[in-house]
Amino acid sequence: MTWKTIIPGVKDGLKALGRTDEPPILLRAHDTDCSAVMHASLPLYHNLYTMQKYTGESLTTYQPRGPWAQEHRNLAALGTTHIENVHIQPGAFQMVVSRFCREDCKGHA
What is the model's pLDDT at position 64? Predict the structure, then answer.
């Protein structure tokens, strides 16, 4: 698993710099099993974030439902910061993107 090399590499770099803080490491959920990696990594490194996209060429709702919404709830429940990366194809949305994003944030709170 990649985390087995990334975390020790980050820690070695911080040690070489004489730093004791832990900058955030972002784990992107679309290419790994976040739950397994987080459970193995948290004892080694605490400043871990998860990120999952909320995307679609025809994004039409700011209130995800079903398995998609559950995935974000599961990631948020891991005990670290979870980032929901909203991808909007502007085209028709160009004039209302800021309102859509505001409502999307409310829908996921």
Answer: 66
